[in-house]
Structures are given as structure tokens and as C-alpha cells.
TrEMBL record:
This is Uncharacterized protein. It comes from Streptomyces pathocidini.
Length: 100
């Protein structure tokens, strides 16, 4: 995933959450949440990675409806989704440990 993917995947996460909220029963809602959870973790990890590089504000300011300079750092800095999901999971574990 690259920095340019963040806004797209945030919209997809919102769509999945909306589908889960309108699910006919709790089992279906839980299933939808579980299916999208790995992607959600990768999105959270991407946000943390971009923030660590000082690129998060630039990414959030992108207007994907306009042509972009695809050679900007936001577009060319990319990460493996498995690494991003692991980053999100380790961050959540660190927060949980700190709160106990």
C-alpha cells in the first residue's frame, strides 16, 4: 500500500462498517467485521507509518479527483500490507500493556 491508497481504503472501511450496521442480524455483522479486520489493521498501520514519515497530513490533503504528480513521495512510498497489519497489532498490544 502506498500513501495514495489511504483515502481509498478509508472509504472502503466505512463502506464495510455501513454494511455491517445494516446487517439483518448480529452474526452477519460480526462476520463482516471479522472479514474486513485484517484490512482495517493494515489501514491503521499505514496511517502510523505515514505519520512516522511526516506524510500523513499531505496524504489526507490529496484530492484523488484531480491528476496527481505520481512521482511525489506520497505515491512512491509503499509498504507491504502484512507489515502494516503487524504494525497496527503491535501498537494495539503496546497500548493494552500500558493501560494495565
Amino acid at each position: 500500500m502506498s500513501g495514495a491508497d489511504l483515502l481509498y481504503w478509508r472509504r472502503k472501511r466505512d463502506q464495510w462498517r455501513s454494511l455491517a450496521e445494516r446487517a439483518p442480524d448480529n452474526a452477519t455483522a460480526d462476520y463482516l467485521h471479522a472479514v474486513f479486520e485484517p484490512t482495517s489493521q493494515a489501514i491503521d498501520g499505514l496511517e502510523r507509518a505515514l505519520a512516522g514519515l511526516g506524510l500523513l497530513e499531505e496524504v489526507l490533503a490529496l484530492d484523488l479527483r484531480r491528476p496527481q504528480d505520481y512521482f511525489q513521495r506520497v505515491w512512491s512510498t509503499a509498504f507491504r500490507t502484512t507489515d502494516l497489519a503487524a504494525l497496527a497489532s503491535s501498537h494495539d498490544a503496546t497500548i493494552a500493556e500500558a493501560s494495565t
